[in-house]
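Q: What residues go here?
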């Protein structure tokens, strides 16, 4: 049985890692990350409406992200910086629904408290980073890079929180499903 948390982790990696900031082509396009999210959500063991909504939202984000990436590859700005900010905002909303789904799945299980704590911290860091980056355009040009860096740093903290959460989920999944014998 495939581990859905591996696919969720891969999705976060593809969405967060952006090599274009270093002058390199983005080898990990965001739309592939959203496809990983959709598949990981599909593998989660629940039939709740949040699963369907989250998976559909991931597919919509994959399509939107594809067009945004296409514009970057063709060196044609479809939506510009506003499009990037809008996608970050949609990603935060998407992660809210993913965490709500995970909270529903881990209800009354050992991971419930860790899921809730990670959710609170992740959202706080992501929202603060987003707001700082969004309003960095209002700051003097000489300070804009530093302010944008602070917002990015907060979002990197959120990324590391998700990595630690992934490790706990991976161990939990491995312990619970490693003892089962799969039948043909």
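A:
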């Amino acid at each position: 049985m495939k581990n859905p948390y591996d696919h969720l982790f891969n999705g976060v990696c593809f969405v967060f890692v952006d090599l274009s900031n270093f002058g390199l082509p983005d080898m990990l396009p965001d739309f592939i990350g959203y496809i990983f999210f959709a598949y990981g959500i599909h593998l989660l063991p629940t039939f709740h409406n949040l699963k369907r909504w989250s998976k559909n939202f991931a597919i919509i984000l994959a399509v939107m992200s594809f067009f945004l990436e296409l514009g970057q590859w063709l060196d044609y700005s479809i939506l510009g910086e506003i499009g990037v900010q809008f996608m970050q905002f949609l990603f935060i909303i998407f992660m809210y629904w993913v965490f709500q789904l995970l909270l529903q799945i881990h209800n009354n299980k050992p991971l419930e408290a860790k899921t809730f704590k990670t959710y609170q911290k992740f959202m706080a860091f992501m929202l603060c980073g987003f707001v700082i980056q969004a309003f960095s355009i209002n700051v003097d040009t000489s300070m804009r890079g530093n302010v944008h860096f602070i917002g990015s740093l907060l979002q990197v903290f959120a990324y590391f929180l998700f990595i630690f959460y992934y490790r706990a989920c991976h161990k939990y999944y491995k312990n619970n499903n490693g003892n089962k014998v799969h039948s043909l």
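A: Context that may help when evaluating the design: The helical segments are 4-16, 30-43, 49-73, 80-105, 112-134, 141-178. The radius of gyration is 17 Å.
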